[in-house]
Amino acid sequence: MSQEEIATELRKTEEIIYLTTGVHTRLLRPPFGRLHPEVAVVIRSKGYEILKPTLATGDWRQSPGTKTIERDVRAKLRLALAPALEEVHGCNDI
Questions:
Q1: N or C: which end of the chain has fewer CB within 10 A?
Q2: Mean pLDDT for the stretch of residues 23-38
Q3: In whole angstroms, what separates CA 33 from the centre of its chain?
């Protein structure tokens, strides 16, 4: 894809996200955490921050639904962060 095609795809995706959620975002998480370097340059030039996944959310499964993804992420966060939250804040509620 050319840089212009990448920028066009990005604009279209941004519009769909806004029309669906009412939110403009400048965060982008590439599929499977992989992104071609040339694509990353274009994305960053448009003001986006590229996020790398730190948890395996399983959202690649066919239509798991947002509730399932949220439940899975919270469970994984709870396991990963509980010791630190307990130590710093005296609780482990996420």
A1: N
A2: 86
A3: 9
Contact call for residues 69 and 57 (beta carbons, < 8 A): yes
CA distance 68 to 71: 5
Residues in the chain: 94
- Per-domain residue ranges of the chain: 1-53, 56-94
Q: Which two tokens stand for residue 89?
A: 């804040």
What backbone torsions phi and psi does residue 38 show, to the nearest 5 degrees? -65, -35
Q: Residues of the chain with pLDDT > 70: what percent? A: 76
Region 31-41: mean pLDDT is 87
Residue 51 CB neighbour total at 10 angstroms: 11
Place of tokens 């982008």: 28
Q: What is the largest CA-CA distance in the chain?
A: 52
Backbone angles phi, psi at 18, to 5 degrees: -65, -45
